[in-house]
Amino acid sequence: MPPTSDPSQSESTTVHRCIYHLPYPLDMDSRFGGQVRPARMMEALSEWGEVWLVAGTAAQRRRQMRIVDDAVARGVRFDFCYSESSTMPTALTEAHHLPTHPVEDFAFLARLRRHGVPVGLFYRDIHWRFPMYGKGLSPVRRRAALAMYHYDLAAYGRCLDVIFLPSLQMAEYVDLPSTVKLAELPPGHDIVEEPTAAAPHPLSLFYVGGFGDNYRMDRLLEAVHGLPQVHLTVCTRPEEWDAARPRVGQWAGDNVEVVHAQGSRQLAPHFARCNVATLAVEPQPYWTFAAPLKLYEYIGNGKPILASEGTLAGSRVADGGLGWTVPYTVEALGSTLAELSAHPEQVDRARDAVMAVRHSHSWAGRVEQLAGVLADVDRRNGPGEQR
User: Which DSSP string do the residues of 110-133 spell out, in sequence order?
Assistant: First the structure.
């Protein structure tokens, strides 16, 4: 829906105004992982300027599209249109998951482009490109879903200026349109208040997130088990810890604490007492391009990070000097933890580096980033050709 202010107001003063398109309903209160990013981006976009939201069911989006189309026809200027894809194919996002509106969203984005509005889309995930996709689906439904994912990619080539990815490494796993510019737009954090520093000694590690097969941390637990002076807190869902306990329970000694906190209020005391956050997971193909939200939550909380070599998170930590990127072995992890325990000044230096880049990795920083990328492709700012 458009904002309550009159969109026909004088343009004598600079007004930031954008269209935010989602091919599904927006739940601002959801804790489900797939809804966290759209909600946080909505908040950050609203702080940046006017947001005309096009989201909801297909019928709701159609009404909102007409409002935007009418505004564009009247000469209302939008800086850009930003869209976020679903984890499902766009045409299957209705509750019944039938492709009853296969063209409408793409046609809307294409109309905006024809009027000169730069259009960018965040392409969320590519689980469908891996063999694990579709377990539990019938072969017919799986083939149909895969065909619709490919249909999305073909449509993007006709209606987008920019495809934003969590990381550019992700482009190696999917055939994205060559006619569209690619740019990174990883997750962010929404921690406004500057975090208080924890004492750098004794060494206290914190991990929050999943604990399934994609998040194996066996070697870290084994390394911590051999270092009684180091404490590790693992925060995960009870069912995920119970499933992993037969495999890792032998290393869950007195210096490993397992908690099941949820939400920023419950997590706050655990972040406050730790001095290093960890993403020391077992490397696998998914982690070479995945940009985990928790990496940026750690940065927002001012925590230097222990990460694994062979992962995108490890590369980001190493490139930014935001902590320590270590081979995923008991020996390497144990040696690094023993070094940090004996030399806490290294923890302080890494925290200073994290604090220096906190804002650029906030959701507000991500909006500044995407606005800059889309301004660069805005054909209204200079000569250019439409595709």
Answer: HHHHHTT--EEEE----GGGSTTT
Is the peptide bond prior to 246 cis by the omega test (within 30 degrees of 0)? no
Cα distances (angstroms) measured from residue 119 to each of 18, 21, 36, 370, 377:
10, 10, 22, 11, 9
Q: For residue 76, give the amino acid letter.
A: V
Nearest Cα neighbor of 317 from 342, 294, 285, 334 is: 294
User: Bridge-partner residues for 121, per DSSP?
Assistant: 83, 163
Number of H-type helices and E-type strands within the chain: 12, 12
Confidence at residue 77, expressed as pLDDT on a 0 to 100 scale: 97
Helix (H, G, I), strand (E, B) or coil at 365: helix
Q: Which one-letter DSSP state was computed for residue 189?
A: B
Q: What are 275's two structure tokens?
A: 């001095």
Tokens of 234: 């693992």
Distance CA 311, CA 112 (A): 38
The rounded distance, in Å, linking the Cα atoms of 33 and 35 is 5
pLDDT, tens digit (0-9, with 9 covering 90-100), for 228-266: 999 999 999 999 999 999 999 999 989 999 999 988 889
- Map residue 306 onto helix, strand or coil: strand
CATH architecture of structural domain 204-361: 3-Layer(aba) Sandwich (3.40)
Going from N- to C-terminal start, the domains of the chain cover 17-188+363-381, 204-361
Mean pLDDT of 82-109: 92
pTM: 0.86
pLDDT digits (tens, 9 = 90+) for 293-305: 899 999 999 999 9
- Contact in structure between 149 and 130 (CB atoms under 8 Å): no
The pLDDT > 90 percentage for the chain reads: 76
Give me the torsion for CA of 258, 262, 268, 272, rounded to 10°. Answer: 20
CA distance readout (Å), 353 to 184, 252, 324, 369: 22, 31, 12, 20
Rounded CA separation 29/166 (Å)? 23
Domain 17-188+363-381 identical in fold to domain 204-361: yes
Q: What is the CATH number of domain 17-188+363-381?
A: 3.40.50.2000
